[in-house]
Amino acid sequence: MTHRNAVLVLVVVLTAVVMTSADHGPAKPLHPDQHFDVTAYRESDGWIIADTNGDGMTDYALKLDHDMRKQLEAIDFSNDGRMDNFYFYRREALIREEIDTNHDGRIDLWVYIEGGVYIVRYERDTNHDGTIDFVRRFDEQ
Ligand SMILES: [Ca+2]
Ligand SMILES: [Ca+2]
Ligand SMILES: [Ca+2]
To answer: What whole-number distance in Å separates Cα of residue 80 and Cα of residue 19?
Structure first.
């Protein structure tokens, strides 16, 4: 692919993303393995699941990569049957956290992490309309 074609493809992809968010859908597409519905996590699909408060509903789910390292973790802190905190790992180090802070079934806080602990950027959808309206960076002056 020539450089010019690559740029063109990128523009098309970006346009598609903008159009999706204008439709009041999620501000960013979810990871293919990421679900809000706690019943979507099944051991037969490779998830390690737990019901930590004993109410009969899954509230914790963990997926490992091929080397048995943490890859994705989902937690339903509010115990309403919808996951609200998602943790993404690469080689066991936390790289991103996605949070549904108001429990409406839509991510509204994205936290980007380096070295497993350092927050380099976070993005928020403060009015929960599906569009990111606040970005804070810590990795540039
Ligand atoms: Ca539970
Ligand atoms: Ca929840
Ligand atoms: Ca939300």
So the answer is: 31
